[in-house]
Amino acid sequence: MSQPNATEEQLRHLIERIERLEEEKKGISDDIRDVYNEAKATGYDTKVMRLIVRLRKMRPDDRREMESITDIYKNALGLD
Asked: What is the pTM of this model?
């Protein structure tokens, strides 16, 4: 078997880094799920909490625009 060249070594290192990060991501996802389960057990509505987390990630202008469009759609469908 031939000796791996620098390009092959670099590729192997990159793949191994990705694999480690995927494992960390899974651990973090499990931790987040545990926090939502704790919140649910305490009586919080986790669907609303997920919505709030998503809204807080948005820039204020984008959030206002989305809320405005949502209101237009709700009015058009008679949801108010």
From this structure: 0.73
Cα–Cα distance measured from residue 21 to residue 55, given in angstroms and rounded to the nearest whole number: 26
Residue 16 lies in domain = 6-76
63, 55 contact by CB (below 8 A): yes
Domains identified in the chain, total number: 1
- Among 52, 46, 45, smallest CA distance to 67 is for 52
User: What are 7-48's pLDDT values in tens digits?
Assistant: 999 999 999 999 999 999 999 999 999 999 999 999 999 999
Identify whether the C-beta of residue 66 lies closer than 8 Å to the C-beta of residue 58. yes
Residue 35 in any domain: the answer is: yes
Q: What Cα–Cα distance (Å) separates residue 39 from each residue in 17, 36, 43? A: 33, 5, 6
Query: Which ranges in the chain belong to alpha helices (H)?
Result: 6-42, 46-57, 60-76
